[in-house]
Write a structure and sequence with these properties.
139 residues, four-stranded parallel beta sheet
């Protein structure tokens, strides 16, 4: 099981970007078959935050609803995840608090890795980061 990072969905819907096409391809594929992939509750919070901060609350709510329909059982953030996130933040200065939560979800839940455009994840020892361009080329 691979965790999906928020940036996959934001780039798929956003302005032209070097990751836009691969993220769109990956999201379209996931809409047909999300098996083997998961989201966490932090991703849902980030979707609400990012689009609301941009003044796009209707988009925030639509995207949230779409993701929750596609992934009806997001991985919850509990004590195990926040304890691991704290350790990761201490060890890896490049990780933001949100990225530390996602990395902790992968580690605490024994997931295969995270699908992301964020290079900070590649610095975390033992964490596999999957580039959406590589995954989209195999779809």
């Amino acid at each position: 099981m691979k965790l999906l990072d928020t940036n996959i969905f934001v780039y798929a819907q956003g302005q032209p970007h070097r990751f836009q096409e691969s993220c769109r391809t990956l999201v379209a594929w996931l809409e047909g078959d999300p098996a083997g992939y998961a989201i966490d509750t932090e991703l849902l919070q980030e979707i609400l935050h990012v689009y609301s901060a941009r003044g796009e609350r209707p988009r925030a709510l639509r995207t949230f609803d779409r993701l929750l329909a596609l992934f009806p059982d997001p991985i919850s953030i509990g004590r195990a995840e926040v304890v691991v996130a704290r350790r990761l933040m201490q060890e890896y200065a490049a990780l933001s608090s949100r990225d530390a939560i996602h990395a902790a979800v992968v580690q605490a839940n024994g997931l295969e890795g995270i699908v992301t455009t964020d290079q900070a994840f590649t610095q975390v020892q033992g964490l596999s980061a999957f580039d959406p361009r590589d995954l989209a080329s195999g779809v």
